[in-house]
Design a protein that fits this description.
This protein is α/β, with parallel strands linked by helices. The chain folds into 3 domains: 1-80; 87-278, no CATH class; 299-465, Rossmann fold (3-Layer(aba) Sandwich), CATH 3.40.50.1220. It has 17 helices and 6 strands. It has helices at residues 4-26, 33-52, 60-80, 86-114, 121-149, 162-182, 187-205, 213-235, 238-262, 266-271, 299-307, 318-323, 326-338, 357-364, 375-378, 400-403, 454-465; strands spanning 311-316, 342-347, 372-374, 387-391, 422-427, 447-451. A 6-stranded parallel β-sheet has the order 3-2-1-4-5-6. Helix 16 (400-403) links the parallel strand 4 (387-391) and strand 5. Helix 6 (162-182) runs antiparallel to helix 7 and helix 8 packs antiparallel against helix 9. It is elongated. Keywords: Cell inner membrane, Cell membrane, Membrane, NAD, NADP, Translocase, Transmembrane, Transmembrane helix. This is NAD(P) transhydrogenase subunit beta. Belongs to the PNT beta subunit family. The transhydrogenation between NADH and NADP is coupled to respiration and ATP hydrolysis and functions as a proton pump across the membrane.
Protein backbone atom coordinates (compact mmCIF):
# COMPACT_ATOMS: atom_id res chain seq x y z
CA UNK A 1 0.00 0.00 0.00
CA UNK A 2 2.78 2.41 0.94
CA UNK A 3 4.52 1.71 -2.37
CA UNK A 4 1.38 2.53 -4.36
CA UNK A 5 0.53 5.66 -2.35
CA UNK A 6 2.89 8.16 -4.09
CA UNK A 7 1.73 6.97 -7.52
CA UNK A 8 -1.91 7.07 -6.42
CA UNK A 9 -1.52 10.64 -5.17
CA UNK A 10 -0.01 11.77 -8.47
CA UNK A 11 -2.79 10.00 -10.41
CA UNK A 12 -5.35 11.75 -8.23
CA UNK A 13 -3.65 15.05 -9.03
CA UNK A 14 -3.92 14.23 -12.74
CA UNK A 15 -7.66 13.60 -12.37
CA UNK A 16 -8.06 16.83 -10.40
CA UNK A 17 -6.20 18.88 -13.02
CA UNK A 18 -8.34 17.34 -15.77
CA UNK A 19 -11.48 18.39 -13.89
CA UNK A 20 -10.03 21.90 -13.50
CA UNK A 21 -9.58 22.16 -17.27
CA UNK A 22 -13.09 20.92 -18.00
CA UNK A 23 -14.48 23.22 -15.31
CA UNK A 24 -12.78 26.26 -16.85
CA UNK A 25 -14.12 25.28 -20.26
CA UNK A 26 -17.67 25.08 -18.90
CA UNK A 27 -17.29 28.46 -17.20
CA UNK A 28 -17.00 30.03 -20.66
CA UNK A 29 -20.78 29.92 -21.14
CA UNK A 30 -23.57 31.05 -18.77
CA UNK A 31 -25.52 27.93 -19.71
CA UNK A 32 -22.81 25.59 -18.38
CA UNK A 33 -21.13 27.77 -15.73
CA UNK A 34 -22.78 26.06 -12.75
CA UNK A 35 -21.69 22.67 -14.03
CA UNK A 36 -18.17 24.01 -14.54
CA UNK A 37 -18.07 25.25 -10.95
CA UNK A 38 -19.19 21.83 -9.73
CA UNK A 39 -16.57 19.98 -11.78
CA UNK A 40 -13.80 22.24 -10.54
CA UNK A 41 -15.02 21.85 -6.95
CA UNK A 42 -14.94 18.06 -7.28
CA UNK A 43 -11.42 18.32 -8.67
CA UNK A 44 -10.33 20.41 -5.68
CA UNK A 45 -11.94 17.93 -3.26
CA UNK A 46 -9.98 15.08 -4.87
CA UNK A 47 -6.79 17.13 -4.67
CA UNK A 48 -7.29 17.89 -0.96
CA UNK A 49 -8.00 14.25 -0.09
CA UNK A 50 -4.97 13.07 -2.07
CA UNK A 51 -2.74 15.64 -0.36
CA UNK A 52 -3.95 14.54 3.08
CA UNK A 53 -2.84 10.98 2.25
CA UNK A 54 0.71 12.22 1.84
CA UNK A 55 2.96 10.70 4.48
CA UNK A 56 4.66 14.08 5.03
CA UNK A 57 1.45 15.47 6.52
CA UNK A 58 2.00 15.14 10.27
CA UNK A 59 -0.67 17.18 12.04
CA UNK A 60 -4.11 16.15 10.79
CA UNK A 61 -5.90 17.69 13.77
CA UNK A 62 -4.83 21.24 12.97
CA UNK A 63 -5.54 20.72 9.28
CA UNK A 64 -9.10 19.57 9.94
CA UNK A 65 -9.66 22.47 12.34
CA UNK A 66 -8.54 24.85 9.59
CA UNK A 67 -10.77 23.13 7.01
CA UNK A 68 -13.83 23.36 9.26
CA UNK A 69 -13.27 27.00 10.21
CA UNK A 70 -12.52 28.03 6.63
CA UNK A 71 -15.51 26.12 5.23
CA UNK A 72 -17.92 27.69 7.73
CA UNK A 73 -16.63 31.21 7.09
CA UNK A 74 -16.64 30.69 3.31
CA UNK A 75 -20.17 29.23 3.23
CA UNK A 76 -21.68 31.97 5.41
CA UNK A 77 -19.90 34.71 3.49
CA UNK A 78 -20.89 33.39 0.06
CA UNK A 79 -24.49 32.96 1.19
CA UNK A 80 -24.87 36.43 2.69
CA UNK A 81 -22.94 38.58 0.19
CA UNK A 82 -25.08 40.18 -2.52
CA UNK A 83 -24.12 39.82 -6.18
CA UNK A 84 -23.38 43.55 -6.30
CA UNK A 85 -20.68 43.02 -3.67
CA UNK A 86 -19.11 40.03 -5.42
CA UNK A 87 -16.05 41.98 -6.67
CA UNK A 88 -15.26 42.96 -3.07
CA UNK A 89 -15.57 39.33 -1.99
CA UNK A 90 -13.36 38.15 -4.84
CA UNK A 91 -10.82 40.82 -3.94
CA UNK A 92 -10.80 39.74 -0.30
CA UNK A 93 -10.39 36.07 -1.23
CA UNK A 94 -7.57 37.00 -3.61
CA UNK A 95 -5.82 38.73 -0.73
CA UNK A 96 -6.20 35.72 1.54
CA UNK A 97 -4.83 33.46 -1.20
CA UNK A 98 -1.82 35.72 -1.65
CA UNK A 99 -1.25 35.79 2.12
CA UNK A 100 -1.43 31.99 2.30
CA UNK A 101 1.13 31.62 -0.50
CA UNK A 102 3.47 34.14 1.11
CA UNK A 103 3.16 32.36 4.46
CA UNK A 104 4.01 29.03 2.84
CA UNK A 105 7.15 30.58 1.35
CA UNK A 106 8.11 32.14 4.69
CA UNK A 107 7.33 28.93 6.59
CA UNK A 108 9.40 26.73 4.30
CA UNK A 109 12.32 29.16 4.41
CA UNK A 110 12.01 29.31 8.20
CA UNK A 111 12.03 25.50 8.40
CA UNK A 112 15.48 25.37 6.82
CA UNK A 113 16.80 28.09 9.10
CA UNK A 114 15.38 26.42 12.23
CA UNK A 115 17.21 23.24 11.32
CA UNK A 116 20.39 25.26 10.70
CA UNK A 117 20.36 24.03 7.09
CA UNK A 118 21.23 26.19 4.10
CA UNK A 119 18.21 26.18 1.78
CA UNK A 120 18.95 25.19 -1.84
CA UNK A 121 19.26 28.18 -4.16
CA UNK A 122 16.12 27.24 -6.20
CA UNK A 123 14.13 27.05 -2.94
CA UNK A 124 15.41 30.47 -1.86
CA UNK A 125 14.56 32.04 -5.23
CA UNK A 126 11.03 30.61 -5.32
CA UNK A 127 10.50 31.59 -1.68
CA UNK A 128 11.50 35.17 -2.47
CA UNK A 129 9.14 35.22 -5.48
CA UNK A 130 6.35 33.81 -3.34
CA UNK A 131 6.93 36.52 -0.75
CA UNK A 132 6.92 39.29 -3.38
CA UNK A 133 3.87 38.19 -5.34
CA UNK A 134 1.93 36.98 -2.30
CA UNK A 135 2.68 40.10 -0.26
CA UNK A 136 1.70 42.48 -3.08
CA UNK A 137 -1.47 40.46 -3.70
CA UNK A 138 -2.44 40.48 -0.02
CA UNK A 139 -2.16 44.18 0.76
CA UNK A 140 -3.14 45.28 -2.76
CA UNK A 141 -6.34 43.22 -2.55
CA UNK A 142 -7.18 44.67 0.86
CA UNK A 143 -6.88 48.20 -0.56
CA UNK A 144 -9.02 47.24 -3.58
CA UNK A 145 -11.61 45.76 -1.21
CA UNK A 146 -11.61 48.92 0.89
CA UNK A 147 -12.08 51.15 -2.17
CA UNK A 148 -14.97 49.10 -3.56
CA UNK A 149 -16.59 48.81 -0.14
CA UNK A 150 -16.39 52.56 0.39
CA UNK A 151 -14.11 52.22 3.43
CA UNK A 152 -11.54 54.24 1.47
CA UNK A 153 -12.14 57.00 -1.05
CA UNK A 154 -12.32 55.76 -4.63
CA UNK A 155 -10.27 58.72 -5.79
CA UNK A 156 -6.65 58.06 -6.79
CA UNK A 157 -4.27 58.67 -3.87
CA UNK A 158 -0.94 60.13 -4.91
CA UNK A 159 1.98 61.97 -3.30
CA UNK A 160 5.12 63.75 -4.60
CA UNK A 161 7.84 61.49 -6.02
CA UNK A 162 5.53 58.48 -5.72
CA UNK A 163 6.90 56.56 -8.69
CA UNK A 164 10.59 57.15 -7.78
CA UNK A 165 9.77 55.98 -4.25
CA UNK A 166 8.13 52.82 -5.62
CA UNK A 167 11.15 52.15 -7.83
CA UNK A 168 13.49 52.65 -4.87
CA UNK A 169 11.49 50.14 -2.82
CA UNK A 170 11.59 47.63 -5.67
CA UNK A 171 15.36 48.06 -6.02
CA UNK A 172 15.72 47.56 -2.26
CA UNK A 173 13.67 44.38 -2.51
CA UNK A 174 15.80 43.04 -5.36
CA UNK A 175 19.00 43.90 -3.52
CA UNK A 176 17.75 42.20 -0.36
CA UNK A 177 16.68 39.15 -2.36
CA UNK A 178 20.12 38.79 -3.95
CA UNK A 179 21.72 39.15 -0.53
CA UNK A 180 19.44 36.45 0.93
CA UNK A 181 20.38 34.06 -1.87
CA UNK A 182 24.01 34.19 -0.75
CA UNK A 183 23.46 34.77 2.98
CA UNK A 184 20.16 33.10 3.89
CA UNK A 185 20.72 33.21 7.66
CA UNK A 186 20.39 36.99 7.83
CA UNK A 187 16.89 37.09 9.32
CA UNK A 188 16.48 40.91 9.51
CA UNK A 189 17.09 41.22 5.76
CA UNK A 190 14.57 38.48 5.02
CA UNK A 191 11.93 40.11 7.23
CA UNK A 192 12.79 43.41 5.54
CA UNK A 193 11.92 42.13 2.07
CA UNK A 194 8.69 40.67 3.47
CA UNK A 195 7.79 44.12 4.78
CA UNK A 196 8.72 45.81 1.49
CA UNK A 197 6.44 43.42 -0.45
CA UNK A 198 3.51 44.39 1.78
CA UNK A 199 4.19 48.11 1.30
CA UNK A 200 4.51 47.68 -2.47
CA UNK A 201 1.02 46.14 -2.58
CA UNK A 202 -0.47 49.21 -0.93
CA UNK A 203 1.43 51.63 -3.15
CA UNK A 204 0.49 49.63 -6.24
CA UNK A 205 -3.26 50.06 -5.74
CA UNK A 206 -3.84 53.41 -4.00
CA UNK A 207 -3.15 55.56 -7.12
CA UNK A 208 -5.77 53.66 -9.16
CA UNK A 209 -9.28 55.10 -9.43
CA UNK A 210 -12.16 53.24 -7.81
CA UNK A 211 -13.89 52.78 -11.16
CA UNK A 212 -11.01 50.58 -12.28
CA UNK A 213 -10.98 48.38 -9.17
CA UNK A 214 -12.73 45.44 -10.90
CA UNK A 215 -9.86 45.35 -13.43
CA UNK A 216 -7.32 45.57 -10.62
CA UNK A 217 -9.04 42.73 -8.76
CA UNK A 218 -8.88 40.60 -11.89
CA UNK A 219 -5.16 41.35 -12.18
CA UNK A 220 -4.59 40.58 -8.49
CA UNK A 221 -6.47 37.33 -9.03
CA UNK A 222 -3.81 36.49 -11.60
CA UNK A 223 -1.13 37.44 -9.08
CA UNK A 224 -2.67 35.15 -6.47
CA UNK A 225 -2.41 32.28 -8.95
CA UNK A 226 1.24 33.05 -9.64
CA UNK A 227 1.89 33.21 -5.88
CA UNK A 228 0.25 29.81 -5.45
CA UNK A 229 2.36 28.42 -8.27
CA UNK A 230 5.51 29.79 -6.63
CA UNK A 231 4.42 28.16 -3.35
CA UNK A 232 4.01 24.91 -5.27
CA UNK A 233 7.64 25.08 -6.34
CA UNK A 234 8.69 25.79 -2.75
CA UNK A 235 6.94 22.71 -1.33
CA UNK A 236 7.41 20.66 -4.54
CA UNK A 237 3.70 20.05 -5.10
CA UNK A 238 2.82 19.51 -8.78
CA UNK A 239 -0.89 20.19 -8.35
CA UNK A 240 -0.30 23.54 -6.66
CA UNK A 241 2.03 24.55 -9.47
CA UNK A 242 -0.51 23.67 -12.17
CA UNK A 243 -3.56 25.07 -10.35
CA UNK A 244 -1.72 28.32 -9.65
CA UNK A 245 -0.67 28.60 -13.28
CA UNK A 246 -4.30 28.10 -14.38
CA UNK A 247 -5.51 30.85 -12.07
CA UNK A 248 -2.68 33.13 -13.17
CA UNK A 249 -3.38 32.60 -16.86
CA UNK A 250 -7.16 32.89 -16.61
CA UNK A 251 -6.83 36.03 -14.46
CA UNK A 252 -4.63 37.83 -16.96
CA UNK A 253 -6.90 36.78 -19.84
CA UNK A 254 -9.90 38.21 -17.99
CA UNK A 255 -7.96 41.41 -17.31
CA UNK A 256 -7.16 41.78 -21.01
CA UNK A 257 -10.81 41.17 -21.93
CA UNK A 258 -11.95 43.90 -19.54
CA UNK A 259 -9.36 46.36 -20.83
CA UNK A 260 -10.35 45.60 -24.41
CA UNK A 261 -14.03 46.16 -23.55
CA UNK A 262 -13.08 49.63 -22.26
CA UNK A 263 -10.65 50.27 -25.14
CA UNK A 264 -7.92 51.14 -22.66
CA UNK A 265 -4.49 49.54 -22.28
CA UNK A 266 -3.62 47.99 -18.93
CA UNK A 267 -0.95 50.65 -18.37
CA UNK A 268 -3.65 53.32 -18.58
CA UNK A 269 -5.74 51.49 -15.98
CA UNK A 270 -2.79 51.12 -13.61
CA UNK A 271 -1.15 54.52 -13.95
CA UNK A 272 -3.69 57.03 -15.31
CA UNK A 273 -5.78 57.43 -12.13
CA UNK A 274 -8.92 57.18 -14.26
CA UNK A 275 -12.37 57.00 -12.64
CA UNK A 276 -12.93 58.01 -9.07
CA UNK A 277 -15.74 55.61 -8.35
CA UNK A 278 -17.68 58.61 -6.98
CA UNK A 279 -20.48 60.27 -8.84
CA UNK A 280 -21.43 63.92 -8.97
CA UNK A 281 -24.88 65.14 -9.79
CA UNK A 282 -25.33 67.19 -12.92
CA UNK A 283 -29.12 67.20 -12.85
CA UNK A 284 -31.82 65.00 -11.45
CA UNK A 285 -35.45 64.43 -12.00
CA UNK A 286 -35.82 66.82 -9.12
CA UNK A 287 -32.90 68.78 -7.74
CA UNK A 288 -29.83 69.95 -9.62
CA UNK A 289 -29.72 72.22 -12.63
CA UNK A 290 -28.07 72.18 -16.03
CA UNK A 291 -28.24 74.06 -19.29
CA UNK A 292 -29.19 70.84 -21.07
CA UNK A 293 -32.77 69.62 -21.12
CA UNK A 294 -34.12 66.11 -20.93
CA UNK A 295 -37.45 64.57 -21.85
CA UNK A 296 -39.14 62.69 -19.06
CA UNK A 297 -41.78 60.01 -19.25
CA UNK A 298 -44.16 58.56 -16.68
CA UNK A 299 -44.78 54.80 -16.18
CA UNK A 300 -48.11 54.92 -18.04
CA UNK A 301 -46.54 56.41 -21.18
CA UNK A 302 -43.58 54.03 -20.89
CA UNK A 303 -45.87 51.03 -20.63
CA UNK A 304 -47.77 52.11 -23.75
CA UNK A 305 -44.53 52.51 -25.72
CA UNK A 306 -43.31 49.08 -24.64
CA UNK A 307 -46.64 47.27 -24.93
CA UNK A 308 -47.36 48.49 -28.47
CA UNK A 309 -43.81 48.00 -29.79
CA UNK A 310 -42.86 45.15 -32.08
CA UNK A 311 -39.35 44.78 -30.71
CA UNK A 312 -37.75 45.78 -27.38
CA UNK A 313 -34.15 45.43 -26.23
CA UNK A 314 -33.46 45.45 -22.49
CA UNK A 315 -30.06 46.86 -21.47
CA UNK A 316 -29.31 45.99 -17.81
CA UNK A 317 -26.64 47.78 -15.83
CA UNK A 318 -25.25 48.21 -12.35
CA UNK A 319 -28.34 50.16 -11.25
CA UNK A 320 -30.47 47.09 -11.90
CA UNK A 321 -28.05 44.98 -9.88
CA UNK A 322 -28.04 47.36 -6.92
CA UNK A 323 -31.85 47.50 -6.87
CA UNK A 324 -32.13 43.71 -7.29
CA UNK A 325 -34.65 44.39 -10.04
CA UNK A 326 -33.92 41.35 -12.22
CA UNK A 327 -37.07 39.48 -11.14
CA UNK A 328 -39.26 42.50 -11.84
CA UNK A 329 -37.59 42.84 -15.24
CA UNK A 330 -38.35 39.19 -16.01
CA UNK A 331 -41.98 39.75 -15.04
CA UNK A 332 -42.18 42.78 -17.33
CA UNK A 333 -40.63 40.84 -20.22
CA UNK A 334 -43.06 37.93 -19.75
CA UNK A 335 -45.99 40.33 -19.97
CA UNK A 336 -44.60 42.05 -23.06
CA UNK A 337 -44.08 38.70 -24.76
CA UNK A 338 -47.67 37.86 -23.90
CA UNK A 339 -48.64 40.93 -25.92
CA UNK A 340 -46.62 39.69 -28.88
CA UNK A 341 -43.54 41.89 -28.36
CA UNK A 342 -40.15 40.41 -29.31
CA UNK A 343 -37.77 41.04 -26.38
CA UNK A 344 -34.00 40.60 -26.23
CA UNK A 345 -31.35 41.46 -23.64
CA UNK A 346 -28.16 43.32 -24.61
CA UNK A 347 -25.14 42.49 -22.43
CA UNK A 348 -22.03 44.67 -22.42
CA UNK A 349 -18.80 42.85 -21.41
CA UNK A 350 -18.18 45.17 -18.44
CA UNK A 351 -21.77 45.97 -17.46
CA UNK A 352 -22.02 45.88 -13.68
CA UNK A 353 -18.87 45.31 -11.66
CA UNK A 354 -17.32 42.33 -13.44
CA UNK A 355 -17.67 40.33 -16.68
CA UNK A 356 -20.68 38.04 -16.54
CA UNK A 357 -22.31 40.03 -13.73
CA UNK A 358 -25.51 40.69 -15.70
CA UNK A 359 -25.61 37.12 -17.02
CA UNK A 360 -25.58 35.73 -13.49
CA UNK A 361 -28.27 38.11 -12.25
CA UNK A 362 -30.56 37.35 -15.19
CA UNK A 363 -29.94 33.62 -14.83
CA UNK A 364 -31.04 33.99 -11.20
CA UNK A 365 -34.36 35.33 -12.55
CA UNK A 366 -34.64 32.36 -14.99
CA UNK A 367 -34.14 34.46 -18.10
CA UNK A 368 -33.58 32.04 -21.04
CA UNK A 369 -29.97 32.10 -22.28
CA UNK A 370 -30.98 32.46 -25.97
CA UNK A 371 -32.44 35.89 -25.12
CA UNK A 372 -29.05 37.21 -24.01
CA UNK A 373 -27.07 38.89 -26.80
CA UNK A 374 -23.45 40.02 -26.71
CA UNK A 375 -22.60 43.56 -27.75
CA UNK A 376 -21.28 42.63 -31.18
CA UNK A 377 -24.41 40.62 -31.97
CA UNK A 378 -27.00 43.13 -30.77
CA UNK A 379 -25.52 46.42 -32.00
CA UNK A 380 -26.48 45.87 -35.67
CA UNK A 381 -30.08 45.24 -34.55
CA UNK A 382 -30.68 48.51 -32.70
CA UNK A 383 -31.68 50.44 -35.83
CA UNK A 384 -34.59 48.01 -36.29
CA UNK A 385 -35.51 48.12 -32.58
CA UNK A 386 -38.63 50.07 -31.62
CA UNK A 387 -37.67 50.66 -27.97
CA UNK A 388 -34.37 50.21 -26.12
CA UNK A 389 -35.02 50.06 -22.36
CA UNK A 390 -31.87 50.98 -20.42
CA UNK A 391 -32.07 49.96 -16.75
CA UNK A 392 -29.36 51.48 -14.60
CA UNK A 393 -26.61 51.43 -17.25
CA UNK A 394 -24.50 54.51 -17.90
CA UNK A 395 -20.97 54.47 -19.34
CA UNK A 396 -21.63 51.39 -21.50
CA UNK A 397 -24.35 53.28 -23.45
CA UNK A 398 -22.67 56.70 -23.60
CA UNK A 399 -22.46 57.88 -27.24
CA UNK A 400 -19.52 60.12 -26.31
CA UNK A 401 -17.38 57.01 -26.67
CA UNK A 402 -18.24 57.08 -30.36
CA UNK A 403 -18.72 60.80 -31.07
CA UNK A 404 -16.47 62.89 -28.82
CA UNK A 405 -12.74 62.52 -29.48
CA UNK A 406 -11.96 64.62 -26.41
CA UNK A 407 -13.89 62.33 -24.09
CA UNK A 408 -11.76 60.11 -21.82
CA UNK A 409 -13.90 57.13 -22.86
CA UNK A 410 -13.60 57.82 -26.61
CA UNK A 411 -13.12 54.57 -28.51
CA UNK A 412 -14.68 52.39 -25.81
CA UNK A 413 -17.09 49.90 -27.42
CA UNK A 414 -20.64 50.67 -26.32
CA UNK A 415 -24.15 49.35 -26.76
CA UNK A 416 -25.51 51.70 -29.43
CA UNK A 417 -28.96 52.20 -27.91
CA UNK A 418 -29.13 55.74 -29.34
CA UNK A 419 -29.65 54.16 -32.77
CA UNK A 420 -32.97 52.62 -31.68
CA UNK A 421 -36.20 54.35 -32.71
CA UNK A 422 -36.88 55.24 -29.09
CA UNK A 423 -34.84 54.88 -25.90
CA UNK A 424 -36.19 54.80 -22.35
CA UNK A 425 -33.60 55.22 -19.58
CA UNK A 426 -34.46 54.20 -16.03
CA UNK A 427 -32.10 55.93 -13.62
CA UNK A 428 -32.24 57.64 -10.26
CA UNK A 429 -30.71 60.85 -11.62
CA UNK A 430 -28.42 62.20 -14.29
CA UNK A 431 -25.34 61.54 -12.20
CA UNK A 432 -22.23 60.37 -13.97
CA UNK A 433 -21.07 56.76 -13.86
CA UNK A 434 -17.74 55.31 -12.76
CA UNK A 435 -15.92 57.14 -15.54
CA UNK A 436 -17.12 60.50 -14.23
CA UNK A 437 -18.30 61.48 -17.73
CA UNK A 438 -21.65 63.13 -18.50
CA UNK A 439 -23.85 60.93 -20.68
CA UNK A 440 -25.05 62.66 -23.84
CA UNK A 441 -27.61 59.89 -24.39
CA UNK A 442 -29.84 61.47 -21.74
CA UNK A 443 -30.26 64.65 -23.77
CA UNK A 444 -30.92 63.15 -27.19
CA UNK A 445 -34.23 63.80 -28.93
CA UNK A 446 -35.26 60.13 -29.00
CA UNK A 447 -34.39 59.52 -25.33
CA UNK A 448 -36.91 59.68 -22.49
CA UNK A 449 -35.91 59.49 -18.83
CA UNK A 450 -37.92 57.55 -16.26
CA UNK A 451 -36.42 58.67 -12.96
CA UNK A 452 -36.45 56.40 -9.94
CA UNK A 453 -35.09 53.20 -8.47
CA UNK A 454 -34.85 50.44 -11.07
CA UNK A 455 -37.00 48.07 -9.03
CA UNK A 456 -39.72 50.64 -8.32
CA UNK A 457 -39.76 51.98 -11.88
CA UNK A 458 -39.99 48.51 -13.44
CA UNK A 459 -42.72 47.52 -10.96
CA UNK A 460 -44.74 50.56 -12.03
CA UNK A 461 -44.25 49.61 -15.68
CA UNK A 462 -45.50 46.10 -14.90
CA UNK A 463 -48.56 47.53 -13.22
CA UNK A 464 -49.34 49.78 -16.18
CA UNK A 465 -48.71 47.07 -18.79
CA UNK A 466 -51.34 44.94 -17.02
CA UNK A 467 -53.87 47.62 -17.87
CA UNK A 468 -53.20 47.45 -21.64
Amino acid sequence: MSEFLPTGIQLSYLVAVTLFFFGLKKLGSPATARRGNLWAAVGMFIAIVATLLNEEVLNYEMIFVGIVIGSVIGAITAYKVEMTAMPELVGLFNGLGGAASAMIAVGEFWRFLSAAQTPPLPTTITAVLGVLIGGVTFTGSLIAFAKLKGIMSGSPITFPLQQPFNIALLIAFLAGSVYICFSPFNLPVFLGIVGISLVLGVLFVIPIGGGDMPVVISLLNSFSGLAASAAGFVVMNNLLIIAGALVGASGIILTIIMCKAMNRPLTNVLFAGFGTGETSATVAGGGGTTDKSVRTIDPEEGAMMLGYARSVVIVPGYGMAVAQAQHSVKELVDMLEGLGVEVKYAIHPVAGRMPGHMNVLLAEANVPYPQLYDMDDINPQFEQTDVALVIGANDVVNPAAREDQKSPIFGMPILEVDRAKHTIVIKRSLNTGFAGVDNGLFYKEKTMMLFGSAKDAVAKLVSEVKQL
